[in-house]
Write a structure and sequence with these properties.
- The protein is mainly alpha-helical.
- The protein has five helices and no strands.
- Helix 2 packs antiparallel against helix 3, helix 3 packs across helix 5 and helix 4 packs across helix 5.
- The longest helix has 40 residues.
- The chain is elongated, with a radius of gyration of 22 Å.
Length: 136
């Protein structure tokens, strides 16, 4: 695993959780459409089965998200530990904004009031100073 791949683990895991949350939102929306069509006079077992299926899927995905969030926190701590091993505070700030906050290079340059190329140079220097062998 490269240094960049290691550092990107946190943001990748965060994106996966976001996708699962979107799945839950879609399933909830679909399940409310089903319940709106149900009336006491016209309860269809097929609609009830579909609703149960949606609820079951939602519960399964919520469990997955819970486990993913636990793993996400462990990953964040590992990435933070590697970032904190960089002695230069400016380089640490660039790494933190890029790999924890998920900012683009231009955003980092504006936030830190640096030239775009200087941000890239700080990033390169920081990558040269980190070691991930013990963290992967």
């Amino acid at each position: 695993m490269t240094k960049k791949e290691f550092l990107n683990q946190y943001l990748n895991a965060e994106k996966e959780i976001g996708i699962k949350l979107d799945q839950i939102a879609r399933l909830r929306e679909l399940s409310t459409k089903i319940t709106q069509t149900l009336t006491p006079d016209k309860v269809k077992s097929n609609s009830e089965n579909r609703l149960e299926s949606f609820v079951s899927k939602i519960v399964d995905i919520e469990r997955e998200i819970g486990a993913s969030i636990d793993q996400l926190e462990r990953t964040r701590l590992q990435v933070e530990s590697v970032i904190n091993s960089v002695p230069n505070v400016n380089q640490r700030n660039v790494l933190r904004l890029r790999y924890i906050s998920g900012m683009k290079w231009e955003q980092i340059a504006v936030k830190l009031n640096y030239d775009y190329r200087w941000v890239l140079r700080l990033h390169g220097k920081a990558l040269n100073k980190i070691a991930i062998e013990s963290h992967s």
